[in-house]
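Propose amino acids for all 419 sites.
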């Protein structure tokens, strides 16, 4: 066998074309009848001789010039033929980067085109659906009410690319003719973020109606005392008033409290009873804001009224509390005010007796002092009258040339009050 291969080897050493050498080698190996190992041996032998030359395999996407070309689907024409976009670069990584960038820009352009086809009504609908679950059930219910009433007209049928400053301002002005500034502001507060969800950089130069300062009456100490005595025969309403006036707790927080939320004189506020978009009452596991999670220490006299109760301390819903309060107030000679004004009373009286703002904010569960300063620091009539008398007496003394009372600290040299 070895001699046989040696003779063939000598013959093949002659000037034989390369392709013919390869074919001869393949024939010899296939018909030699040698074992698998023998075939491998002689194949390696002829490779070393240089007769069998393995050509490098052509790399995928590689051009004869050495560059790399990739393709991406672009579109299909009217004849059903698919068209592709080509990307050529020196390396595969660069070609892939070019293709990815083109696909991303193409997707953005298509999305922008699709968004412009949306109407205002469709954009608001999709915004509400996207926020459902992230926002409180009460907020979603308010959005649903605005959507059903304020975006069903001609303005709601406009496409997003048709919106401009003039059209939006006319819409706001039309709403302002028959709605309160607060309702108009709430409607625009839903409209603008809904549009921005689909057109990020949109801006409308419009003017909203000026806010109206509500004429609200803030109950005084004597009002609260009188009302508590009036409702002594209604323990549930009495407990609600005590929690609202001396907490101060919101109606939803009051209706969510159970006996397990009382630890000594501490009431733990960590949930709220709210109504979902379908009008059903449910317990929300978090209160209105993050700052609303708080521990409020009440006087012993209030805690005694809450003791001995199992389950919910006020087993009803916030709307029922408001109605029962209104009926009880109508039987009294007290001025007209709302149940929520007990929170106004609490914040205002704490401020009047000198409690620092940060403690008022913490006890009331406000996120910042902006809301408290703008709404809840109302002037209580009795306290305002006392302070007005003090102010006028002081100014009258100064205007008449009298001396400043010795109980007011002053800088004698400059005749200015010490801060």
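Proposal:
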């Amino acid at each position: 066998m070895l001699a046989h291969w040696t003779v063939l080897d000598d013959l093949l050493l002659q000037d034989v074309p390369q392709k013919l050498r390869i074919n001869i080698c393949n024939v010899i190996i296939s018909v030699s009848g040698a074992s698998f190992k023998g075939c491998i041996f002689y194949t390696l032998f002829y490779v070393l001789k240089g007769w069998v030359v393995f050509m490098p395999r052509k790399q995928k996407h590689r051009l004869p010039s050495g560059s790399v070309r990739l393709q991406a689907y672009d579109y299909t024409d009217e004849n059903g033929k698919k068209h592709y976009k080509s990307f050529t670069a020196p390396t595969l990584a660069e070609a892939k980067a070019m293709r990815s960038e083109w696909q991303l820009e193409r997707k953005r352009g298509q999305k922008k085109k699709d968004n412009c086809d949306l109407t205002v009504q469709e954009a608001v609908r999709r915004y509400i659906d996207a926020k459902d679950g992230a926002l409180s059930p009460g907020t979603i219910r308010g959005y649903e009410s605005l959507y059903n009433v304020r975006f069903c007209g001609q303005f709601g049928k406009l496409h997003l690319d048709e919106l401009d400053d003039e059209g939006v301002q006319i819409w706001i002005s039309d709403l302002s003719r028959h709605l309160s500034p607060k309702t108009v502001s709430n409607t625009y507060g839903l409209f603008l973020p809904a549009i921005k969800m689909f057109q990020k950089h949109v801006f409308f130069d419009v003017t909203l109606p000026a806010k109206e300062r509500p004429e609200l009456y803030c109950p005084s100490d004597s009002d609260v005392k009188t009302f508590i005595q009036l409702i002594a025969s209604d323990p549930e309403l009495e407990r609600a008033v005590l929690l609202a006036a001396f907490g101060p707790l919101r109606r939803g927080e009051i209706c969510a409290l159970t006996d397990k939320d009382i630890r000594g004189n501490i009431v733990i506020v960590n949930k709220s009873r709210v109504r979902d978009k379908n009008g059903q009452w449910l317990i929300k596991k978090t209160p209105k804001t993050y700052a609303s999670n708080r521990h409020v220490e009440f006087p012993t006299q209030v805690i005694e009224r809450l003791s001995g109760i199992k389950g919910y301390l006020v087993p009803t819903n916030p709307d029922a509390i408001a109605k029962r309060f209104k009926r009880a107030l109508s039987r009294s000679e007290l001025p007209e005010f709302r149940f929520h004004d007990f929170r106004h009373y609490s914040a205002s009286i704490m401020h009047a007796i000198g409690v620092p703002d940060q403690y008022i904010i913490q006890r009331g569960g406000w996120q910042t002092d902006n809301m408290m300063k703008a709404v809840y620091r109302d002037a209580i009539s009795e306290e305002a009258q006392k302070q007005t008398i003090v102010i006028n007496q002081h100014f009258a003394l100064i205007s008449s040339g009298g001396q400043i009372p010795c109980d007011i600290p002053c800088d004698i040299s400059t005749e200015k009050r010490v801060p």
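The chain is about 50% helix and 10% strand. The mean pLDDT is 80.
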